[in-house]
Fold each of these.
Amino acid sequence: MAEMKYRRLGGSGVKVSEVCLGSWLTYGNATEDRSAEECIDKAYELGINFFDTANVYARGESEKVVGRSLRKYPRDSYVLATKVFFQMNDGPMPNNRGLSRKHIMEQCELSLKRLGVDYIDLYQCHRYDTETPLEETLRALDDLVTQGKVLYIGFSEWSAPQILDAVKIQSQLGLDPFVSSQPSYSMLNRKIEKEVIPVCEHHGIGQIVFSPLAQGLLTGKYKPGAPLPADSRAADPKQNMFLNGGNLDQSTLEKIQKLVPIAEQSGLSMAQLALAWCLRKPNVSSVIIGASKPSQVVDNAGAAGVSLSEDTLKAIDSILM
């Protein structure tokens, strides 16, 4: 097992592990709490110091599980990230979503309580809010940093123009700057390479990419024409809403199977190849993995520090492009 490697989070001074353990669709939801804690413990043991969650994951339950599992470790030894945007309760509650000052301030306090911590290392806008003045959002985030409740701020799934608008306001008003972007990115989804990465590179914003394994497709466990593995995400109605309800594209699966020999020639598992491919970009600070078993954490952590040759990268492109 290679030693865990660390990268600066954008232009900030904080360093995060190249592999981050996330909790979307898993902790507090589809994965038993004990299994979640075992995965977090294994991640910490392997040198992963970066843990990502969100208030909306399992309606707060994910934050509780992550916070409880990390409580045994020194607070200064890990970087804890969560998010705000989505509605947290049912019913007609017009202020219970978005990025208004009211919602941000209220949800930050609730996240701190659920996580059981005094501060959040990285607080992220889970989506862009078209209904709230951007300056209001950015001032609220800056106030949280000033209060010491949040150390760094970021966003998820923002477009390049939205990022540029925010950077301009933060610069003009002297507000705390964004240091991270959390987009979807994988061998099968490269859309951020055209505009988002160049803009972020220029302004000191690092990528923390989610779904680097394309919801498990890039592990190679789904075979063309074969039944779905019984214990897989695609076979689980609780988790397969982002996998077309388990109806997988056979041509994509065939391409992925052609990548398996490339991984083997590099001495890597398919998952390690896919994660290392994302990490080839210097602007990618970390890749977020999801795990329901400690063995998955072990395998994924093996992507840290892996450098893919130009020949390998060309071979991958020849199959997928």
Amino acid sequence: MRLDSDPRLHKNLALVLQIASKHERKLYLVGGYIRDQLLKRQVKTGSHHDFDFAVLPGAAIELAKIVADELQGHFVLLDEANDTARVITEDGACFDFAACVGGSIESDIKRRDFTVNAIAWDADYPEQLIDIVAAEDDLKAGKIRAISEQSFIDDPLRLLRAYRFAALLDFEIESSTQGYIQKYCSSISTVAAERINSEFFLMLETSFSAKHVKAMGENGLLESIFPELRDCRRVTSNAYHHLGLFEHSLETLAQAERVLPEMPDWAKDSLAQTLASGVSRAAATKLAGLIHDIGKPETWVINPEGKHTFIGHDKLGAEMIEPLAKRLKWAKPIERFIEKLVRWHLRPGHLFQQGPPTDKAKYRFYKTIGEELPELIVLALADFRSTCGPGLQDGRREAEEKLFELLHNFTVYQVGTKKESRFIDGSELMKLLGIKPGPQVGEILDELLEAQSLGEVRNPEEAADLARKIYQEKYCR
């Protein structure tokens, strides 16, 4: 296998090599850039790339500072103890510098995580690749192979990184590496939450995350990260759920991954938006699918007729998100987003339980859910498709059509509410009713806007009459 293009053709990389040579440092390009070139993967648009360097004889942080200064880039200290730093240039290129472990590129390669990330390139011999761990064979075979068992002892985060790379490349983890992961899976608890988050969400950003999360569930690694899922194993299948709760949770994530391509373009735009730290709404929605039923074990009751009930599990599950998020150190936008999806995941289905919902019911549903509506529909569809018990066979197609109808009608609601110019504003309402500022003003204005959007009031006079009626009935008793 050969590189498609000479790395030196990248303007900033060529400059970095020149700077290193001037300061008597030997650089080896290693890791993902080489791997992706060999696989002909286009990982980023334009000229933006990530480059990882092994620096000989070391002093990588010092070199990174020099490179940042000469390229007018941004210096980031990554790990002072292990002599690693990053430089980000104006054109978006990212250069990571790490001291060469063991005093040679060969010893450095042997301390890396997986063979597919351990091919090196030397600018002095641009036509050759340094591959001492049969990495090219694993690339051709589509295998993730740990370089050694010691790799997981040195850094237990690699337990999770194995699955992240398998999902990223659509590769399989080979058997000996799977054995190491099972042996050391509990040691993931020693890794900083921020590092776990980064890897897990990166995995969820791929299109192949579900099968690898399922594999994590088979060897205990998943529950080492999310102990809230342990109790889900004891909840059995029932008339509505053909799977036990743990398996249903995994299947919901898988179904969410399949639902995403079915979304209309405007919903895909919403799902692609970033919540925080590079985490997309789509990735957070898939995680919500995995943990949406964590409130079920504590609310599980089997009545004398044998019916399984989980009354209030949506509310309890939402309450469990805050301590979970605190432990995993999620950014607040991620916590609020997932908490909302877990809290309301039953609401779309409930809307149709008593027959077709009224316009007022749909309006209030859209208003309550707000901009998370596309993501909630993804979760509701995934949850529904994961539920195939004998008691839930009729009307499946009709139920899905109703969920898609809710999704498509949301755009009509959005256009309608944006176009509406209130017949009465806050100051006019206070003057009309002779009241002072307070919560009741906002509550009455919300009801007036709802009535206006539904065509129940058609002019300022009718709006004023309704305002008086609402005020008398709600606040003058």
Amino acid sequence: MNTTLVIMAAWMGSRYGGLKQIDWFGPNGETILEYSIYDAIRAWFTDVVIIIRRSFEEQFKQVLGSRFDDKIRIQYAFQEINPVVEGFDSLPVREKPRGTGHAVLSAKDHIKGNFCVINADDYYGVDWYRQMHDWLLNNCKENTCSMVWYILENTLSENGTVNRGVCKVDSESNLTDIEERLKVWKISETMAAKPDGEETWLESIVSMNFWGFHATIFAVFEVEFHKFLKEQWTIEKSEFFITVPPNQFVKSVDKECKVMISNDKRYWVTYADDKTTTQKAIKALVDEGIYPENLRE
């Protein structure tokens, strides 16, 4: 069975100040993207699809080269900023992509089996790729999806606000609701908040865009994307988030999303000042022997 790792990498990184997806974080210039692919290989994924803007293609290919070609199949999918969408003849011209949910739809034609979706600029750790791959092989069905969730406190940046999907789960670790909250920051030892003053407990669970899906989920993405376009097509910076389709999916009585719990501190790069922290974390993993000294050899 094909199992595909889908990596979302189509944004510019305005808060970071450049293409963080191909900036270096490892001791020999490795990108987080390379560590993700390396972890996917060790977890026995068969394919990788990297979602980028078409204008980024040569830069990504120069960074990755051919070093993984004999271990896993890598393809590129293109998230067009101004896509042609059936039923919408005059969508407003935009300067940024229409969100992570639209990114997933952009990869549809490249995916033949069950798949996992991650962010290009997040380090998740090899164990979670293995657990997700096991779920995709043994438990993924048309009426199921899955996600790895994190503790909010372990995902906040010291350098600015972040966006997080705050989750609710039932007693059997099934997702019941997820709400995308924008510009969240820590305000006390127990609480975080967003600009409108709404507060969230630091021990709340959140999505970091680590999802597992059956290929039939694309039908849900398409319905929700069309709904998004009808409701928000005139709003210049509106985004269709990846959290929307699974949130609608679990509202059906015969559908469920299994939540896998991570107590790990996740490393990411939202701001330029996040880079040093993530570089140190990866260097420590190299020193522990979790990764080779030079991933590019």
